[in-house]
Amino acid sequence: MTTTFDRLTVPTEEHVAAFNRWNNDEELIPLIRPNKNAEELSGRSSMTLADLEKRLSDHTIFLIYEDGKLVGEMNYMIDPPHLFKKEPRSAWIGITIGEPEGRGKGIGALAMTYIEGKIKEAGLKRIELGVFEYNTRARRLYEKMGYSEVAQQAEFTYWQGRMWADVRMEKQIIHI
After folding, report:
1. Cα(83)–Cα(38) distance, rounded to whole angstroms?
2. I need a labelling partner for 22 at 20 to 30 A (CA). Which of 46, 47, 95, 142 fits?
3. Apex CA 73: angle with CA 17 and CA 62, to 5°?
4. Which domain holds residue 117?
5. Which Pfam families does the protein's record reference (predicted)?
6. What is the domain count for the chain?
7. Whether the Cβ atoms of residue 77 and residue 59 lie closer than 8 Å to each other
8. Which is it for the CA torsion 54, 18, 104, 153, positive or negative?
9. Residues 126-164: pLDDT tens digits?
10. What backbone torsions phi and psi does residue 34 show, to the nearest 5 degrees?
11. Can you spell out the DSSP letters for 55-68?
C-alpha cells in the first residue's frame, strides 16, 4: 500500500467526476456536508469544472492517491469567515476519503499529517476544523492527533431524524 499526495493546480473533468461522486455518496453525505433537513440530506450536489477552478481561488487542495488511484482529497483555507476563533494565520481544513477502498486503512491519519506539514510550511500558526458530533471515528482520530474541542455549534446538521452539533476543534502549530 502506497499513499501519495499531489497538489491540485489544474483541475480536469476527471477530478470533477470524482468530487461529484463523493459529494453524492449516501454514506459520505452526512459526514461531509451540513444538511438542514431530510430533503437536503437526500439532495444531489453537482460541481462543474468552473466551480472547481473557482474553489482553487481560496482553497489549497491536495489529492490523495492509494497505489496510484485517486481515493480522496484534503484542503485548507486561510482565515475563512466561518472560523470559530478569529485568530489570524489560522487554517480551516477539510478531508474526504471518497472511495470506499480508501477507508479504514489509516489514510486519513497520513493525510492529516501531510496537510499539517503543508500548513506549517505556509507559516500558519493554528488549524481549526469542524466535525459533526455523531462522527465519533473522526473525532477520535483528531483527538489522537492533538486536536482539542473549542466549541460546539448546536443544531448544525440534520441526520437520523434530528439535528446535531458541529464540534469545532483546534490545534496550535509549533514552529521551531
Report:
1. 26
2. 142
3. 110
4. 3-172
5. Acetyltransf_1 (PF00583)
6. 1
7. yes
8. positive
9. 999 999 999 999 999 999 999 999 999 999 999 999 999
10. -75, 145
11. HTTT-EEEEEEETT
What cell does 110 get? 497520513
* Three-class secondary structure of residue 53 per DSSP: helix
Task: Quote the CA–CA distance of 144 and 83 in Å, as a whole number.
Answer: 22
Q: What is the pTM of this model?
A: 0.94
What CATH number did the domain enclosing 109 receive? 3.40.630.30
| pLDDT digits 0-9 by tens, 69-122 | 999 999 999 999 999 999 999 999 999 999 999 998 999 999 999 999 999 999
- Residue 137: all three cell numbers together: 471515528
Q: What is the pLDDT, as a whole number, of residue 42?
A: 81
Alpha carbon of 46 to those of 24, 30, 43, 63: distances in Å?
8, 16, 10, 19
Q: Cell numbers for 140, please give them.
A: 477520535
